Structure formats: C-alpha cells, structure tokens
Amino acid sequence: MTVLDVSRGLRRAGLLALLAGALLPGCESRTPPHRFPLTTTPATDSVPPPAPGAAQSASVEAQPSAGPESAVTGAGSPQVVPASASLPAQAPGKARPLARSALRALPPTTERAGQLHALATRLKAPGGAVEDPCLERGDAGCARSALTPFFTALDGLVQTPGTTPTVIAAFGNSLIAGDRIVDVVREELAAGFGGAGRGVLLVDRMAPYGGRGRTAAVSNGWQPRTLGELKAPPHPFGITGVYHLATENRARGRFKLEGEPRGTLWWKDVKGAGRLVVSVDGTVLTRTEPREDGASRTTSFDLPAGAKWLDITAEGKGAIVQGVVLQKDEPGIVLDMLGVPSADATLYARLEEDALKAQLQQRDPKLLLFFLGGNESKRLEWKRTDLPTVRQDLAALLRRARAAAPGSACMVVGPMDAVQDGHAKGKPLTQRPFLEAAIQAEREVALAEGCGFFDLYAAMGGAGSLARFNQAGFMHEDLVHPRGHGLDLLGQLVSDALLAGWVNEGAVPAPALTSSREEALDTGASGQTAEAVP
C-alpha cells in the first residue's frame, strides 16, 4: 500500500489504497515507518453529516469488494475511516463543524499490523471504537471531548513538531506489565508520528525473570517491591508502582544510552539509606544528598554527547530507587509503561500523593491510559470486593491522576474476556460471572469522570473469544494471560481504535457525559486487602 495522499482531490484514491491494504495484508508499504503529511487544505466551516451507510465495517469477510464509495459522501465530505481490516468504523451521525478529520489520515500500514489484522479475522476479533464523551459543548456541537488533548498533540507532531515528545502514561495490571501490549501501541503510534525514546525505566526487573525492555541492561543487588503485593510494603510508591531496595553495598543498575541528552532519577529519601551515585562511562556526574525525611525526590543530570553507559549505584544498603527517565529532545511518541502484576484501582491507592503529583507533572502526559478490570472481576468472583467498591476506587484513581495531570486526556481500557476459576480440564470454559458487570461499571465511571472508554472484551470478540485465543495457542495454561501474537493482537486493537478515533474526530458526534462529575460516587479509598493474583 502506498502512503495515503489526503488532499481533497485524492481522497477517494487514498481510501482505495487503504482498503486494498486491509484486504491484502501481505501487500504493505515497503516504505519504512515515518511521520506522514497532513493536507494544507483548510477545513470547511460546516461539514454535512455522512449519508446512511457511509461508515461501514472494513471487515475482510464482510466486504471483500468494498470500494471508495463506502466511506465518503462526496468530494467535500469528511471520511469516516476504519482503523484496520478488522475494526468497524464508528456509526454515522451528525457531524461536528470542526471537521478535524478533514486534516487527518491513517499512517501507512506496517507489515506487523497487516499480519495482526489477518489474525483478527481468523479469531473473529471485530475490533471496536473508542467512546469519547463530550466535555464542553459549543454553539455548533462539541468543542472539546475527553481525548481532544491527545488528538491535538498528535496534530502537533505532524504540523509543527517542535522538540517536545508526546508522552502517554499507561497504568495497569499484569496484562500490560510484560510490556508487550503497550509495545505494540507504542510502536504503531511511533510508526506514524515518530518515537522520542524510552521514557520511564526501572533500575531492575520486578521479578528475577523476564525481559529488560523496561529496565537497566544489567543490574545486581536490588530487591523489588510492588503495590500488587498481598501485604502493603513499608513505603508508598511513585507512579511506577515499584521501588527497588538496595540489599548490598554497591548495588548497581547499568543503562545503555541511546543518545539521550539528559536523565532523571526518582528516589526515596529514607533514613540511613546513604547516597545514590550517577555516573557515565566511569565518570561521576552527581550524587544524591539525602535528608532522611522519607520524601520522594528527583535528581536530574545532563548526559555528555557520545556517552554509552549510565550507572546508578547505591553507596550502601537501604537506598531506594523509584525509576529512571531517559528520553530524547525531539518530537515523537514516548509511552511510559506503569503496569504492575496483581494491580487494580484499589491497590493504586498505595501511590504517594506528593510523588504522584510531582512525577506526573514532570512527565506532562497527553494521554493517561488505564488497563484495569481483570483483577477486579476475579476479586468479585472471590467475593473479596463488590461493585460499589470497584466504582468508588476507579473514580478515585481517575480523579487523582487527572488532578495531577490536568492537561492530559484520559482513557480506560476494559478487561479482556475471562473464564471462571476452577474450570475442569476437557470441559467447555465458563465465562467469569462478574466480568460484564465489571466492564459496565468501568465504562460508566470512565464516562462520568470525563474519560474515554475502550471495550477490549467486545473488540476481541466478546464471550467465547478467550476460548478461540486458547485453541489457537495464544493463552498461557492459567487461561488468564495471553501470550505471543495474542498479546500483540490486543495491542493492535487498542492502537487501531486510538488512530481511528483521531482520524474520525469531528466527523462523528461525541456522546455527552452520562452524568456530571459531581454526581459520581464518593472517591474515598475502600481499604480492601490485596491478594495474590497472577
């Protein structure tokens, strides 16, 4: 597929190329990922609504011969573009006069995306659209929706890139803690908008196994503590949900540098911990100066040009590192993976308020993502929580995060399909009894709090979809965690929905909030006790 030309005179040809790429996923562009141009044609003052049938699914099975007429109403009308071969477009409706979609088009399909779209067809995963509630009404429609700050930041990366990265902060549970689902989201967005580095990293892994995509390249002498532990650890957490305690003198984490001009160390200033030393290629750059007052602190440092290795070293036992930030001074996407195994909205109450505010303000994200609901539905099944608590604690988390990052968009991603505990081998799998109730509760809270919502359960195919993933070999034996291309596909569904929402903003109506924030439930933490969840 060739790069889409989004000028008005070539819209239909561009859409034909898009559909060709959807129908023939093996024929992707050979052009390497890059930022794609926007048309310079100004938006019209008023955009007519799409005609009935204008926004139809681009499903490979449903539309093997779809043509350009299926998604446009005329030379002057906005396109309603499906995000992938497996993702249905949003339903037609009264268009917003802002007509932002007239300036946007999907980036070229990557080779992996084409393969995952074909897999989605085989697994009957239809994809889905993001629900993006309207937060501010104007005279002629919705002036600002929940995802407007993020979509506007994407526009800036294309039109006037500057030198500032667009940061996404992704909180969640074990579904994303392995960093594969969000890897796909990160890489798909970077393919169209550029990448600006790694963002928030850990000084060591959260367990003695797994990859090091989120951590130092080499490390020793650290003990991880996470907010997902059964018994609350002795210290609260920063936004990573993890801290590493030095268990020996000279505990060290070594990061391979990738041309970053500066870095930031987040650390906990605890009594008797001693100093942390920051050095590059054997030369000391700075040392922390503890006050031993228990506060979360930040130490920033410049990195010399051409530096290869960054070391964070504890002079003595007891030093605590919350995270290390490494990114570039250039436009592009940075996605901070902040997921923790066993996490749910209740356990995120273990984030320290001062650290949450300071660290999110430093990161200045344009999108807050929350991948939650799987552990909530399991704990509902175990009768260790209830729906009012699930609602209350999610609302509290969203409010805290949004207060710390008021310029950010916000989106909740619901849980994937799940089956009941105690399933007998060889017998049909039974859906987890509280799954759909948990999804509905999350959706209602997200929309009431002014956040978008993406129904991952419906996007992957709803009830029975986990069984299809399992039969295809994409689930671990616990029947809780996907693996391999199953994880990749879930990430593709999320990135497809975000890109489609960006392209379609202004071409379809944004739903109003289901209730005001004042009517939402009380935000007090529930005090529920955590339990071990895979």
From TrEMBL:
Stretches assigned to coiled coil: none
Biased composition (Polar residues): 525-534
Residue stretches making up the SGNH hydrolase-type esterase domain: 335-483
Single GO term (MF): hydrolase activity, acting on ester bonds
Gene3D superfamilies the UniProt entry points to: 2.60.120.1360, SGNH hydrolase
Entry superkingdom: Bacteria
Region (Disordered): 26-98, 513-534
Name under which the protein is recorded: SGNH hydrolase-type esterase domain-containing protein
Species of the source: Corallococcus coralloides (strain ATCC 25202 / DSM 2259 / NBRC 100086 / M2)
